[in-house]
């Protein structure tokens, strides 16, 4: 249940529904109220409100006629030059319905467009600027060619803080008549990593089991390594007991079906609580980065994690020798 879909279920989405992006929302709202927006580029992590804000802009501009004046395309599905030459140009060259003198094309995941398609798009943006405005959304603005960036007003979105996600979750819980504990909310936020859409999807999955959202239920849905389990593994390793650390790690991965990358993320968080010198912590963080990279490149996760555990054991032995 994406955040924009949930909001649509109850009432038309408004600027105030986009949380955690106050500066961006204020500036975009001012442009929208002037009824003369430039081309816009929304850049930032997933689930932070880019698509929702585009929908708000279009609704505020066109009111009930917004569907007739709005074309949404996902560039990750249709990323070739033909999409720009056909769909985009055909829509852009026609006049809008209503008082606003332009239509709006929303290109989601625009950083997935091929360089050729982006070159075609820059000319289209220029030639049809009198009848059409573009809103581009991307995760990485560096993948958008400079000529397109210079034609747009760029707005950068940030990951949402806990208070922002808490506001959305509490609103949903009140409407859907769910109960949630502060501990469960904390685990939801940790699991979402600042992605509101992911957080809402996790909440929906949990609520489908029980209307009472508890920490244990959320942990089961998230399927992340529990901090206390990882702490036991690291305690064994720092104590110099490699065999027990390896056995416990294998048990966690098989019992909880947790990926190697999730284990490494959990280890990174626990490193700062280890009773070792700050210099050793930094080295261990570096080792986790190496292991994560190798796993991403296709190495065997358990072999890499054993190698990482060996580094923790050596760190523990070094600590004891001082």
Summarize the biggest pleated sheet: 5 strands, parallel
Work out the number of β strands: 7
List unreliable stretches of 5+ residues: 1-8
CATH topology label of the largest domain: Rossmann fold
Under the CATH scheme, which class of the largest domain? Answer: Alpha Beta
- Give the name of the CATH superfamily of the largest domain: P-loop containing nucleotide triphosphate hydrolases
Secondary-structure element order, as H and E? HHEHEHEHEHEHEHHEHHHHHH
What is the overall pLDDT average? 83
Q: What is the approximate shape? A: elongated
> Beta fraction of the residues?
5-15%
Count of DSSP-assigned helices:
15
Instruction: Give the CA-CA distance, first to last residue.
Output: 54 Å
Summarize the structure in words.
Helices cover 59% and strands 10% of the residues. It is an alpha/beta fold and 322 residues long. It folds into three domains: 3-156, Rossmann fold, CATH 3.40.50.300; 162-222, Orthogonal Bundle (Helicase, Ruva Protein, domain 3); 227-321, Zinc Finger, Delta Prime, domain 3. The strands form two sheets. The chain has a five-stranded parallel β-sheet, sandwiched between helices. Strand 3, helix 5 and strand 4 form a beta-alpha-beta unit. The protein is elongated. The chain starts with a helix and ends with a helix.
């Amino acid at each position: 249940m994406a955040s924009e879909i949930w909001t649509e279920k109850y009432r038309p989405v408004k600027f105030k529904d986009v949380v955690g992006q106050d500066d961006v929302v204020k500036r975009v709202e001012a442009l929208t109220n002037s009824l003369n927006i430039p081309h816009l580029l929304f850049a930032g992590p997933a689930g932070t409100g880019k698509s929702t804000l585009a929908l708000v802009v279009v609704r505020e501009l066109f009111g009930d006629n917004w569907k007739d004046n709005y074309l949404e395309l996902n560039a990750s599905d249709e990323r070739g030059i033909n999409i720009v030459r056909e769909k985009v140009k055909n829509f852009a060259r026609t006049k809008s319905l209503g008082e606003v003198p332009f239509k709006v094309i929303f290109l989601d995941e625009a950083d997935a467009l091929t360089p050729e398609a982006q070159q075609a798009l820059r000319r289209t943006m220029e030639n049809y600027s009198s009848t059409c405005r573009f809103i581009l959304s991307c995760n990485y603005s560096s993948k958008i060619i400079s000529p397109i960036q210079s034609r747009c007003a760029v707005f950068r979105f940030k990951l949402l803080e806990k208070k922002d996600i808490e506001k959305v979750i509490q609103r949903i819980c009140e409407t859907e008549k769910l109960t949630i504990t502060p501990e469960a909310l904390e685990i939801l936020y940790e699991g979402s990593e600042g992605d509101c859409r992911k957080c809402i999807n996790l909440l929906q999955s949990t609520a489908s089991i029980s209307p009472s959202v508890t920490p244990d239920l959320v942990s089961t849905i998230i399927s992340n390594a529990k901090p206390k389990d990882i702490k036991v593994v690291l305690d064994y390793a720092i104590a110099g007991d490699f065999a027990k650390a390896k056995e416990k790690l294998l048990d966690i991965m098989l019992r909880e079906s947790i990926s190697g990358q999730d284990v490494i993320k959990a280890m990174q968080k626990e490193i700062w609580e280890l009773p070792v010198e700050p210099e050793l912590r930094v080295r261990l963080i570096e080792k986790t980065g190496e292991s994560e990279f190798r796993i991403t490149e296709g190495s065997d996760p358990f072999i890499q994690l054993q190698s990482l555990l060996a580094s923790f054991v050596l760190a523990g032995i070094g600590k004891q020798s001082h």
